[in-house]
């Protein structure tokens, strides 16, 4: 495994340097976005071209989500993996562009399906597709995007990346089903939560980054390094997102604050607070998240309990820990022509664990 080949000294030096850099100014995606801007423009063109259909509702509904201002972090992972594996090139191959597009389609399909399952009415600050066109249309267009994604993967001509992204798609579905089985159970083990978010979120980050490297001819060490980077980045990103559901407002999040609470989702802050709860607090969690019996002031009370047990702070620490693991995975990219992109990826990891409140 690549993670075992990175020395403790190298991990410490990378994390220390990047943490020092993060203190100078808030981390952002700007460096990575700028480095990959030309490639991303090709991805966006491919998205629009492959989203077309003789059925007008399909591009209309899909475009509503895909063009709504998402960060495009997952296709950026594919492009970054492709570029860092072939640092002497100034642009990604056509195959890498197609893979990045496929990754965005997979992600968008899962979002369409998630919003139906969660009965969400806001995403990225606007009405969800299911709120506008209904559940049936959203599910079917999600299926269309999955099909387009697999067409693009086949066209890439690499059986290894087809296997990687196909397996990731299966893991995402498994994780969504497991999340349904633990919903409403505040005594869920932390290990089960981590398994859910690894499959639901982190595995696509990992598969995207690794596939980008592989399509550029990377060896196993580089491919696994990008896999570990993407996996830990995704874990940090999802934990932070779950913590923000209890701390940020709707405008900051682009969705309704408190949705996870009202949807009876089991996330790290709730698990940590439940583990430290007294009998009265456990009764509260069972009545609300367990039974779905909500009163007007329950979200405020949930925030108070989380604050009392420092569950948000502990979740933020966990997100930071995973972000540092993502940074450490970049230690093998020490060649001069890899430095700028590696630094941008490190800042992206810091961004994933940055509290935006």
TrEMBL record:
Q: Which EC main class describes this enzyme?
A: transferase
Question: GO molecular function: any one?
Answer: metal ion binding
Q: What is its EC number?
A: 2.5.1.-
- InterPro entries in the cross-refs: Isoprenoid_synthase_dom_sf, Polyprenyl_synt, Polyprenyl_synt_CS
Q: Which UniProt keywords apply?
A: Magnesium, Metal-binding, Transferase
Cofactors, names only: Mg(2+)
A GO biological process held by the record: isoprenoid biosynthetic process
The answer to whether UniProt assigns keyword NAD to this entry is: no
PROSITE patterns, alphabetized: POLYPRENYL_SYNTHASE_1
Q: Family assignment?
A: Belongs to the FPP/GGPP synthase family.
- PANTHER family assigned: ALL TRANS-POLYPRENYL-DIPHOSPHATE SYNTHASE PDSS1, GERANYLGERANYL PYROPHOSPHATE SYNTHASE
Name of the protein in its database record: Decaprenyl diphosphate synthase
Organism equals: Puniceispirillum marinum (strain IMCC1322)
């Amino acid at each position: 495994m690549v993670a075992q080949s990175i020395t403790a000294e190298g991990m410490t030096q990378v994390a220390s340097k990047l943490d020092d850099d993060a203190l100078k100014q808030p981390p952002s995606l700007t460096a990575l976005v700028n480095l990959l801007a030309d490639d991303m423009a090709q991805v966006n063109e491919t998205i629009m071209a492959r989203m077309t259909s003789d059925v007008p509702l399909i591009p209309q509904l899909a475009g509503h989500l895909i063009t709504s201002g998402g960060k495009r972090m997952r296709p950026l992972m594919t492009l970054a993996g492709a570029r860092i594996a072939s640092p002497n090139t100034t642009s990604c191959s056509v195959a890498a562009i197609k893979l990045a597009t496929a990754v965005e389609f997979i992600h968008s399909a899962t979002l369409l399906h998630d919003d139906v399952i969660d009965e969400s009415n806001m995403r990225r600050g606007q009405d969800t597709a299911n709120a506008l066109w209904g559940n049936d249309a959203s599910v079917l267009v999600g299926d269309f995007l999955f099909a387009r994604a697999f067409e693009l993967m086949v066209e890439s001509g690499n059986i290894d990346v087809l296997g990687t992204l196909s397996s990731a798609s299966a893991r995402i579905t498994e994780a969504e089903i497991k999340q349904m089985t633990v919903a409403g159970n505040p005594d869920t083990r932390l290990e089960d939560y981590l398994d859910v978010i690894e499959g639901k979120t982190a595995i696509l980050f990992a598969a995207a980054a690794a596939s980008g490297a592989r399509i550029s001819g990377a060896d196993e060490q580089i491919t696994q390094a990008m896999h570990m980077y993407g996996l830990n980045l995704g874990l940090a990103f999802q934990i932070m997102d779950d913590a923000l559901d209890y701390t940020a407002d709707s405008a900051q999040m682009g969705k309704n604050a408190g949705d996870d609470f009202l949807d009876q989702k089991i996330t790290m802050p709730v698990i940590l607070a439940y583990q430290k709860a007294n009998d009265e607090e456990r009764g509260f969690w069972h009545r609300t998240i367990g039974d779905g019996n909500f009163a007007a002031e329950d979200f405020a009370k949930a925030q108070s309990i989380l604050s009392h047990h420092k569950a948000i702070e502990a979740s933020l620490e966990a997100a930071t820990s995973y972000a540092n693991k993502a940074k450490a995975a970049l230690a093998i990219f020490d060649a001069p022509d890899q430095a700028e992109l590696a630094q941008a990826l490190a800042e992206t990891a810091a961004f994933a664990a940055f509290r935006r409140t």
